[in-house]
Write the structure tokens for this entry.
Amino acid sequence: MSVKQGSALLVAAIIVAALLAVSLLVGVYDIANSEDGGEMFWITRVPRTLALVLAGAAMATSGLVMQMLTQNRFVDATTAGTTEWAALGLLLTVLIAPQVGLVGRMIVASLSAFIGTVVFMAILRRIVIRTTLVVPLIGIMLGAVVSALTTFLAAQFNLLQMMGTWFMGSFTAVVRGRYEVLWIVGIVTLLVFLIADRITVAGLGRDVATSVGVRYEVILIAGTALVAVAAGVTTVVVGFLPFLGLVVPNVVAMIRGDDVRSNLPWVCLGGVALVTVCDLIGRTVRMPFEVPVSMVLGIVGAAAFITILLRQRSAA
């Protein structure tokens, strides 16, 4: 990394740190003038901010991994149906084994997300892809089918309201004692750093990866598993974070190219910054009420997605 690139990364890190500091200070509860303000700061504000960091970095990184493995810039956990499969796993856990705790639900959701992502990858291998838009369309349709099944089961067992609360995509309920499992997605992000070079090579295709000694299938399964864990854990703790893994890696790739290792710090910082800004908007636009971060992120992400589509079309 050159001195110029290092300086730019340092400036970006300072900006993200400033956003996180603002996140610690913004809230309905007056921590400065209350007797228990210090305790509430550590119970609510710090866990919420840490959750923003962990979830934002993990979901943005997962999007980058999926885009490299599928060789398609329009794929992430949202457009591949991964989050819908995680939601189905979580609902089945509640229906079949309601006594299972948070960790158990997280494991089942991650396994379901992994199965769903494998199904998505298998479908891609069996069709002829004539345009890059076919891949996300397949993922969106697959996710819609799974989502319809999840909604049907929830309606049959009177769990629609509970399901809506689970998957709203909000950091409101993130407090001390509930966010700690998100450190798992922090580990996922670190593992992506460790195999970043192999993911880059695997993104060039099976033949190229095999020719340079990279075990393509192993990297494909490992990358899929990491994405599934990140999606499963985040869905259980926070809910849906739409388009986060789609927008951030694309913006970084447009500026810096496709090298996974050199892009990862920027993708992590971008993911944290985007989810923090959306969360701050949700907290302040109707204070003391709160707009779910998924709603703000969905609006921003949809606009960015359309912009990227139009940019790709004009470039073609």
The chain has a mean pLDDT of 83. The first helix runs from residue 3 to 25. The chain has one domain: 19-315. The chain has 13 helices and no strands.
